[in-house]
Design a protein that fits this description.
By secondary structure, the chain is of the alpha+beta class. The chain contains five helices and nine strands. The strands form two sheets. A seven-stranded mixed beta sheet has the order 1-3-4-5-6-9-7. The chain has a two-stranded antiparallel ribbon with strand order 2-8. The N terminus is likely disordered.
């Protein structure tokens, strides 16, 4: 006999995962914006509001990620409510990990770790890639440290922030740049 689990036990069981579709784009844009920009983002610890203003993404960029031929956007939901997401894109023998967002009020409770673990399993076991990589704003030491605790390492490879392209936000300082982080995976 199966039993429906509710309350704290259901939350401990983790979120439901699924692949995003075009219908999810508006909710994804709202989630990403809430996790990184504006006053609402300050409820969590992933905010970039002190580094950047303006938008983090838009419907066109999210739709492109959702429809990418060599990628997907993974959603974490509970009872149909979107809680977190990430983008995965196959790039040869690696997977790019991006657009990682967790609702600000839920950050720090293990949901991000669950999403990252699911993304790593998908990339390593289903796609058979040997590593996952990402770009993180260098001026986010607490975020880089979080990824390092999860097995990513800093490469010392940097790329410039796209100053002048407001699709990525409006910088509040002149020294922003991205660092590439990599984690080796053990594909099956």
């Amino acid at each position: 006999m199966s039993e429906t689990v509710t309350g704290p036990a259901a939350e401990a069981a983790g979120p439901d995962f699924r692949i995003a579709t075009a219908a999810d784009v508006p909710a994804l844009v709202e989630l990403v914006e809430s996790a990184y920009r504006g006053e609402d983002s300050r409820a969590g610890w992933t905010t970039e509001a002190d580094l950047l203003s303006g938008r983090r993404t838009d419907a066109e960029a999210v739709a492109e990620a959702v429809g990418h031929a060599d990628g997907l956007v993974l959603l974490a939901e509970r009872k149909g409510e979107l809680l977190a997401c990430c983008q995965l894109e196959r790039r040869g023998d690696r997977a790019y990990f991006g657009m990682f967002s967790v609702r600000p009020g839920l950050q720090g409770g293990g949901l991000g770790r669950a999403v990252l673990a699911r993304a790593e399993r998908l990339a390593g076991e289903e796609w058979g890639v040997g590593a996952m990589e990402m770009s993180v704003i260098e001026q986010r030491p607490e975020l880089i440290a979080w990824y390092e605790r999860r097995g990513f390492h800093r490469t010392g490879e940097f790329s410039p922030f796209p100053y002048g392209d407001e699709r990525f936000g409006i910088p509040r300082r002149p020294d922003l740049r991205f660092e590439r982080l990599v984690k080796e995976l053990n594909p099956a």
